[in-house]
Amino acid sequence: MIPSWKNRCHCLFKAIKPIESTDLESIIFIRNEGHTVFEAISRQLSYYAYHVGQIDFLGKLPKGDQWQSVSFTKGQSSIYNQKNSIRKNQESTLLIMFKFIPLPLRFL
């Protein structure tokens, strides 16, 4: 599964690399529906997040109570937020989410 995931991430980043900031408002078509380049990138990243959730859910089923969350343990978000309230105000949600992407997938 990991090689397939890496291949798809590589395709995304290969497509994004040559994009200039002036290209972000250009219209492209996905399944005959117009999107700005920025919307298309957001769409693809959302698609990846959806599948990460599916993988997480499927991994959790056989492990039961022994499952170790890839994010926060249930009920522990408030503790994390208290410890990191200064950083929370300094970083955007996207940067925080980026930190949870496994290192091999960040820079393909």
Biggest beta-sheet profile:
2 strands, antiparallel
Strand order, sheet with most strands? 1-2
How would you classify the quaternary structure? single chain
Into how many domains do the coordinates divide?
A: 1
Q: Estimate the strand proportion.
A: 5-15%
Order of helices and strands: HEEHHHHH
The amount of helix comes to: 55-70%
**Structural class from helices and strands?**
mainly alpha
In words, what does this structure look like?
It is a single chain. A two-stranded antiparallel sheet has the order 1-2. The longest helix is centred in the middle third of the chain and has 27 residues, at 37-63. Helices cover 61% and strands 7% of the residues. The chain contains six helices and two strands, in the order αββααααα. By secondary structure, it is mainly alpha-helical. It has helices spanning 2-16, 37-63, 77-83, 85-90, 93-99, 103-106, and strands spanning 27-30, 33-36. Residues 101-108 have low confidence and may be disordered. It has one domain.
Layout of helices and strands, plus pairs?
Elements lengths: L1 H15 L10 E4 L2 E4 H27 L13 H7 L1 H6 L2 H7 L3 H4 L2
Task: State the main characteristics.
two-stranded antiparallel sheet, 108 residues, disordered C terminus, 2 strands, mainly alpha
Short description:
The chain has 108 residues and is mainly α.
